[in-house]
Amino acid sequence: MSGMAMPPDVPTSANNPGRPAQAFAPAGAVSGPPHAADLLFDPAEMAAAREQLRVENGDVRTTAVIIDQLETTFADGESGYAWDAQGWSGGDINRFWWKSEGEGAFGDGVEEAEVQALYSRAIRPFFDVQTGVRQTYRPEGDRTDLVLGIQGLAPYWFEVDAAAFLSTKGELTARAEAEYDQRITQKWIVQPRAEVVLSAEDIPELSIGSGLSSLQLGVRVRYEIRKEFAPYIGVEWTRRFGDTRDFLEAEGRSAEETRLVVGIRTWF
């Protein structure tokens, strides 16, 4: 080693000692036309080719429908149903996004349902900001809300979806969800999930209290017959807090519920 010629210890533009300084590009490298191929081929044809390349590699339109939950529920000797679905149409940056979820009891109709129509824009490689409107249907009264939220894939592959809702009556609420797919085998997947609902004020008409309104924890185990189709079974626990709990108990309803769920997850 002592006989080897070592490179000079010269600082570089990356402040990496021991490597030659990085030379700037010569002036001639940037002195030509923006598209040098236009000097050899028809500029109109080259422009059309560049546009086609942009469409095929950077302006792809996709559409997806994801039915994350379509299930039957069992709690306290009663059975019901629930769904949670969403989808989008658009490119990598701008998309139209829709969401729908709700639940009900067999024989008693829908207890609560909502539909959202959102404009979604990517702000990071794995996160979108979403804004739009939400329409909620309840026997106690319907609501129309403005929506502002964020959705994406957090570090360690946690899927998160959080949004604030401002109703036409001035009521401010928020909801945050997180779930994680833990693959046990190539076919079996365990999905823990958590959801919290908050409110800035009491909304007696809807039996919602201020502060932390409810917490829902659940876990589902699914078997992927195909990537696009997977039946599952799970359990879900829901607890209401504060004034929300008081409202429900005053109506003779329980503030805590545990239910078994059986359903399917599919997408296309």
Query: Helix amount, in percent?
Result: under 10%
N-to-C SSE string, H for helix and E for strand: HEEEEEEEEEEEEHE
Strand content: over 45%
Distance between the termini: 62 Å
Number of separate strands: 13
Arrangement of strands in the largest sheet: 1-2-3-4-5-6-7-8-10-11-12-13
**Class by SSE composition:** mainly beta
Q: How much is the radius of gyration in Å?
A: 27 Å
Instruction: State the helix count.
Output: 2
* Nearest-integer average pLDDT: 90
* Molecular shape: elongated
Residue stretches low in confidence (pLDDT < 50, at least 5 long) are none
Largest sheet geometry: 12 strands, antiparallel, barrel
Please, could you describe this protein's structure?
The protein has helices at 43-58, 242-250, and strands at residues 62-75, 78-90, 94-105, 109-124, 127-137, 143-154, 158-167, 172-180, 182-183, 188-199, 211-223, 229-240, 256-267. By secondary structure, it is mostly beta strands. The chain is built from two helices and 13 strands. β2 and β3 form a beta hairpin. The model has no long low-confidence stretch (mean pLDDT 90). A twelve-stranded antiparallel β-barrel has the order 1-2-3-4-5-6-7-8-10-11-12-13. 9% of the residues lie in helices and 55% in strands.
What's the gist of this structure?
This protein has helices at residues 43-58, 242-250, and strands spanning 62-75, 78-90, 94-105, 109-124, 127-137, 143-154, 158-167, 172-180, 182-183, 188-199, 211-223, 229-240, 256-267. The chain is mostly beta strands and 268 residues long. It starts with 42 loop residues before the first helix and ends with a strand.
